[in-house]
Write a structure and sequence with these properties.
By secondary structure, the chain is of the alpha/beta class. About 40% of the residues lie in helices and about 15% in strands. It is built from 18 helices and 22 strands.
């Protein structure tokens, strides 16, 4: 198997496949979080969420979950599946969740800290379609799925895969997860994601992860290495297949990110306060349940509240409302001492100016809110209906800029450059000074996509726009991609596991 790439130190850039990119690092956000809601407003949202759970409740569509909830003090109506929680019960069990934990990768250098002031960027996930300039828009397929996984491995600023970057619908639905997990484990050495669509898919992913890491289930339980998104079916419902997958995850010590799917005016109230109250209520109920079923299990508070276009009903992203909800979601997560998830999203149908400004409108509040897990950080298009190869590159550029922004500030005497200013004097320039020459390689952020040439040089080089340059870069990255090393015996064991499970998958693709 190919050897790992050589890496330089933290402050140096390196070149892979002719593409200048930052070395692997996980950013930390040392700036103060931006809080747009007052402490009283956060408490009002908290109290309204508790009232929703105490007076209205939330449906848990799984009998085992209902038993667990009743045993731990919740009021359960088995006929309606509705569960009500006292405020004290929510507070008691939310307090059991850790404020920070480590996600372990196959390559320990790619381990990730989740919580406090750590930030991680994950690949786009769960899109049904994909696109590029050469082949246009098309349904998700396994070849594109694999290539998007390769890009996630190749670019250092993408810290993990956050699900299937595109759904490979050309594979059978009841065994698709086996091929996808095999791809994650063999084409990357970073943390990956499994879908909580019932117990068996998660059980298979955990067994394959144990093979890939060379661990037993007992050992893996002490080493969170897998993550899954748990979406509530807003309003006020958590589906059975999600619950079953979630239970398998947390009982085996793996992490879940609970994310209500609350779009204002559709699955949530049209007002920001109402939508956030619903988001918070659903998140609190589900997170409290995780701690009842597996105390101390690693969890993340997820926010995905945005608005819809009230003329068409289509989701809108990169809006002021999304920015506000992202920032307030961060305040709520800190209120409970939990890691926080938000997203880099847009609603543009192509890689254009709209895609860029909506993504920046989404990405900035994730940073300002001290979001720990930025999902869909690279490649999201069409409101989540498409994974774009060119958008991956545009987003990698944005993420690298954000990562450089999070490097912080230096105001040492040497950085103040008094002697350099004195040497140059009035009317000179700093291009050739010793102070500049000693620092020029790492003085500024080096773009992989932006074209900073003047107009004459730009026209001489072919006059490519951003999307055309991105098209060249992703193809160049794939041509230079290197498989991370894995023992042949481990690959053979994974292949044997997949082949055996495909004989009798035992998974129904039709759910009630």
């Amino acid at each position: 198997m190919p050897r790992e790439h050589k890496r330089r130190g933290r402050g140096q850039s390196r070149t892979i496949a002719g593409i200048q990119q930052q070395p692997w690092k996980q950013p930390r956000n040392f700036y103060s979080p931006f809080e747009i809601a007052s402490a009283d407003q956060i408490e009002a949202l908290h109290e309204n969420s508790l009232r929703i759970l105490a007076e209205l409740g939330i449906a848990f569509l799984d009998d085992e979950a209902l038993d667990i909830l009743r045993e731990h003090g919740a009021k359960v109506n088995y006929s309606s599946k509705m569960v009500k929680f006292s405020p004290e019960l929510i507070e008691e069990y939310i307090a059991k969740a850790p404020s920070q934990f480590t996600l372990h990768a196959r390559n320990p250098k790619h381990n990730l800290e989740v919580g406090k002031n750590w930030t991680l960027f994950s690949m786009v996930g769960s899109t049904p379609n994909c696109s590029d300039l050469d082949n246009g828009r098309r349904p998700g397929n396994f070849k594109d799925y694999q290539n998007l996984i390769r890009l996630a491995q190749h670019f250092n600023v993408i810290h993990m895969t956050g699900g299937y970057p595109v759904e490979p619908i050309d594979l059978p639905a009841n065994t698709r997860h086996l091929d996808c997990a095999f791809t994650h484990l063999t084409l990357t050495d970073k943390v990956f994601h499994a879908y909580s669509l019932g117990k068996q898919r998660i059980a298979d992913s955990i067994d394959m992860l144990c093979i890939g890491l060379g661990l037993t289930r007992k050992e893996l339980k002490k080493q969170p290495s897998l993550i899954s998104i748990i979406n509530t079916s807003s309003p006020l419902r958590l589906d059975g297949v999600m619950i079953q997958g979630m239970l398998e995850m947390i009982r085996n010590g793996q992490s879940v990110c609970v994310t209500p799917f609350t779009l204002s005016g559709a699955m949530a109230p049209v007002t920001l306060a109402g939508a956030l109250s619903l988001q918070n209520a659903e998140a609190l109920a589900t997170l409290a349940f995780t701690q009842m079923a597996a105390p101390g299990s690693p969890v993340i508070y997820g926010g995905f509240t945005s608005n819809v276009d009230m003329k068409s009903g289509a989701p809108a992203f990169g809006t002021p409302e999304l920015a506000k909800s992202t920032l307030i979601g961060g305040q709520l997560a800190r209120r409970y001492g939990l890691p926080y998830r938000a997203s880099n999203v847009n609603a543009s149908n192509t890689v254009d100016t709209q895609a860029g400004y909506e993504s920046m409108m989404s990405l900035w509040p994730t940073i300002q809110s001290h979001c720990n897990f930025v999902k869909h950080a690279a490649g999201w298009l069409e409101g989540g209906l498409c994974a774009s190869f060119e958008k991956v590159i545009v987003d990698v550029e944005l993420l690298q800029m954000m990562s450089a922004f999070l490097d912080g500030l230096s105001f040492s005497a040497d950085e103040m450059a008094f002697d350099a200013i004195a040497d140059v004097g009035p009317g000179g320039h700093f291009f050739g000074t010793q102070h500049t020459l000693e620092r020029y390689e790492n003085a500024f952020y080096s773009p992989i996509l932006s074209d900073w040439n003047n107009f004459g040089q730009w026209t001489e080089n072919g006059s490519l726009d951003t999307t055309q340059r991105a098209n060249k870069i992703w193809k160049q990255a794939l041509s230079e991609y290197k498989n991370p090393p894995m023992d042949e015996s481990t690959i053979e064991e994974l292949e044997a596991f997949v082949a055996k499970r495909k004989e009798k998958p035992g998974i129904s693709i039709h759910w009630k």
